[in-house]
Amino acid sequence: MEKRLKPEKYMRIIVSGSLAYDRIMDFPGKFGDHILPEKIHDLNICFTLETFTENFGGTAGNIAYNLALLGEKPLVYAAAGNDFEPYRAWMAKHDIDISAIRVIPGEKTAFCYIITDKSDNQITAFYPGAMKSSDNLAAGPALQNALAIVSPSYPENMNRHVKNYKDNNAGYIYDPGQQITSLAAEDIINGITGSRVLICNDYELSMVTDKTGMKETDILDKTGILVTTMGSKGCTIKTKDTTLEIPPAKPENDSDPTGAGDAFRAGLIKGIASGLTLDIAGKLASIVAVYTVEKYGTQTHSFTMDELRQRYEQNYHQKLLI
Q: Among 73, 117, 202, 278, which residue's CB has the most CB atoms within a 10 Å radius?
């Protein structure tokens, strides 16, 4: 029988990452039908879009929002700009701890343009804005009983968070994500080393292994758990002793995959904080992720814990006991 994760008493859950306004757009075709491989060196292309919305987003904001739906009150470490007030009100409304968010008067909050085609391929443009500034990094005894995640933000801030969590004995999940290309190989290795979990999608994991020269066995010498998400194919969860294949939860529709990875991470954090088995924690994360897929935008979905338990039982034919 699979062992349960060690159920620890966490004083708080900390989410470090980005806050952004997401401009999400849908292209009614496939990018590949309009990109000529032999002309990729001279790319000049325009996509006429079908839909456009502006949403609250960023890795920290998305993860924190889903944790709030899961009954947690996460503390967010991030930086925002002088246009943050609507986002601040939204986070406060959902009982997210915004006391550690630093507002940079002369900057705008980061923004992200995301175009998704009919095959769920995405093209993203990102302006970091205030994210380039340091946030209100905290230290001290409170972090010794914290479960944290280092999610993609400005590389220097990610490195600062890793050091802070290590120095203060906070358990942390390392999620380099979109910043793998910007982080130095030694920074990625340092982030993985001593982390409780490394989480990547399958493409990102290939980037990590290529950039660092590490194999998965090497990674598992440095972290306790390796989680690899594969979109509609589910995920794998590996330790030195175990490999689990987690089947995907079934969405009622596939409106928009944007933000599903962040929702998955929130579910995983909730599972770890609740001391669930790795199998159940992975399934919980998959259930949280499909709620995001079913709604256009990253923080437009909602659910109650009773609805979540019912959805879990429908997908995995067992009760979720949290």
A: 278
